[in-house]
């Protein structure tokens, strides 16, 4: 896969593996596995997250499997625990994923608090994260945008911390950029915005804040043209990252002329 990151940048490293793309997409809500693959290709993403409780990876014999369309040798399959509301279910789901994927250790942990908001249950997330890390998993963890909780999850050994930008599937964009910035200031692992992105400008803002990546599903899958939106998200993540690396101009209260009068001839 060709490199798409800036020559000034280094690849995104997660659990010892380098990724040229800083965009991760999901596998839910698409019209078909083929549409999902088309969007994945257009996005340039190298990692795709899969809800083990909702998408067949072989646990349902005789039914179509995502792995028949999306190659686990070409893309990193990121099993997630979507639909789990307590630590025990989340841990059990990760262990099932490890069996289905021949010892695969990289997982996305999410433990939800309720069905209306899909907001993370932080208490259960901490319990599950600690148990999974002890069991040898590489844990990428979905959480709230609380800087203290984000740091605690890093201290427990999670390989990436994934604060929400807004509630899952809301498309509201980054609602609290200040908390995201505080999380970034204290982090030594990748910080990846997960949930809330609605359009390309939301993804660009996340990257301009300094986030190491963005994960999204609904923003692409529920677009009128998912494949075209995937392409837009690819460009947004790349441009946002480059803008962060470039360093934006200072914000000023008053104008600053592009062509100052100092030193002019008349």
Descriptive notes:
The structure is a single chain. The chain contains eight helices and ten strands. The termini are far apart. The chain has about 270 residues and is an alpha/beta fold. Helix content is about 35%, strand content about 15%. A hairpin with a 2-residue loop joins strand 1 and strand 2 (about 15-20).
Tell me the layout of helices and strands.
Elements: E1 12-14, E2 17-19, E3 23-25, H1 33-43, E4 47-51, E5 76-80, H2 87-100, E6 106-109, H3 122-134, E7 138-143, H4 147-155, E8 160-163, H5 177-186, E9 192-194, H6 200-208, E10 213-216, H7 218-221, H8 226-246
Helix pairs in contact: 1-8, 2-3, 4-5, 6-8
Oligomeric state of the chains present here: single chain
SS-based class: alpha/beta
Q: What's the arrangement of strands in the largest beta sheet?
A: 5-4-3-10-9
**Which residues form runs of ≥5 with pLDDT under 50?**
none
Mean pLDDT over the residues: 92
Percent of residues in beta strands?
15-25%
Number of helices: 8
Distance between the termini: 56 Å
Shape category: globular
Share of helical residues? 25-40%
Question: What would the keywords be for this entry?
Answer:
three-stranded parallel sheet, 34% helix, 266 residues, globular, 8 helices, five-stranded parallel sheet, alpha/beta
What would you say about this model in short?
The protein has 266 residues and is of the alpha/beta class. The protein has eight helices and ten strands.
């Amino acid at each position: 896969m060709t490199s798409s990151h800036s020559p000034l940048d280094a690849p995104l490293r997660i659990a010892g593996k380098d990724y040229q793309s800083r965009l991760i997409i999901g596998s839910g809500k698409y019209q078909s596995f083929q549409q999902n693959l088309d969007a994945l290709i257009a996005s340039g993403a190298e990692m795709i997250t899969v809800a083990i409780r909702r998408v067949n990876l072989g646990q349902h014999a005789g039914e179509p499997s995502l792995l028949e369309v999306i190659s686990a040798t070409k893309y990193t399959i990121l099993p997630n625990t979507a639909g789990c509301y307590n630590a025990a279910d989340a841990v059990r789901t990760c262990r099932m994923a490890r069996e289905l994927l021949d010892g695969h250790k990289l997982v996305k942990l999410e433990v939800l608090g309720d069905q209306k908001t899909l907001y993370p249950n932080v208490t259960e997330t901490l319990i599950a994260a600690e148990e999974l890390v002890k069991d040898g998993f590489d844990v990428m963890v979905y959480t709230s945008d609380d800087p203290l909780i984000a740091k605690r999850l890093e201290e427990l050994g999670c390989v990436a911390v994934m604060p929400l930008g807004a509630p899952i599937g809301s498309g509201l964009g980054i609602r609290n950029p200040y908390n995201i910035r505080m999380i970034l200031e204290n982090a030594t692992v990748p910080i990846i915005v997960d949930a809330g992105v609605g359009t390309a400008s939301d993804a660009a803002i996340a990257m301009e804040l300094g986030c190491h990546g963005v994960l999204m599903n609904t923003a692409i899958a529920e677009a009128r043209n998912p494949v075209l939106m995937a392409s837009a998200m690819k460009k947004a993540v790349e441009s946002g990252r480059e803008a962060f690396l470039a360093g934006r101009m200072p914000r000023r209260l008053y104008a600053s002329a592009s062509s100052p009068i100092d030193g002019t001839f008349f």
